[in-house]
């Protein structure tokens, strides 16, 4: 099918913001629709974290092109325990994803 967004629009999602907005000290920045975008020689990495009533989500694309997502039941309230649990799950899964040196070379969406 046809892409939902034009190539130019998708490209803008990963461009640094214009002045006077500055990147973070590590060079990463808030992208259009992304919480954080990091550009490096290895590629572009970005992530988005969010919630809605009764659910929480996290999506990350790694510079290698590997993308992973979490969707789980959680409150939408900004209480410290819910935030700690959510952050812990993301850390645990990220560690597992980053622990693999090679992924299967299979496209399940063709």
Task: Sum up the structure in keywords.
5-stranded antiparallel β-sheet, 31% strand, 110 residues, 2 helices, alpha+beta, 5 strands
Shape: globular
Q: Work out the helicity level.
A: 10-25%
Task: Evaluate the radius of gyration.
Answer: 16 Å
Average pLDDT: 87
Q: How is the largest sheet built, in terms of strand order?
A: 1-2-3-4-5
Q: What would you call the structural class?
A: alpha+beta
Percent of sequence in beta strands: 25-35%
Query: Could you give the order of the helices and strands?
Result: HEEEEEH
Give the CA-CA distance, first to last residue: 12 Å
- Biggest β-sheet: count, sense, barrel? 5 strands, antiparallel
Enumerate the spans where pLDDT stays under 50 for 5 or more consecutive residues.
Answer: none
Q: Please report the number of helical segments.
A: 2
The count of β-strands is 5
Characterise the protein shown here:
Strand 1 and strand 2 form a beta hairpin. The protein has about 110 residues and is an alpha+beta fold. Strands 1-2-3-4-5 form a five-stranded antiparallel β-sheet, covered by helices on one side. It is globular. It has helices spanning about 5-10, 80-100, and strands at about 30, 35-40, 45-50, 55-60, 65-75. Helix content is about 25%, strand content about 30%. About 10% of the residues are buried. The mean pLDDT is about 85. The protein contains two helices and five strands; from the N terminus they run H-E-E-E-E-E-H.
């Amino acid at each position: 099918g046809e892409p939902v967004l034009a190539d130019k629009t998708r490209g803008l999602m990963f461009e640094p913001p214009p002045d006077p907005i500055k990147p973070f000290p590590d060079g990463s920045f808030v992208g259009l629709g992304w919480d954080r975008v990091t550009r490096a020689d290895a590629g572009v990495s970005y992530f988005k974290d969010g919630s809605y009533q009764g659910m929480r989500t996290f999506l990350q694309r790694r510079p290698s092109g590997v993308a992973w997502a979490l969707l789980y039941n959680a409150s939408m309230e900004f209480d410290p325990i819910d935030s700690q649990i959510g952050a812990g799950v993301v850390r645990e899964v990220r560690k597992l994803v980053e622990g693999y040196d090679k992924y299967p070379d299979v496209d399940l969406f063709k």
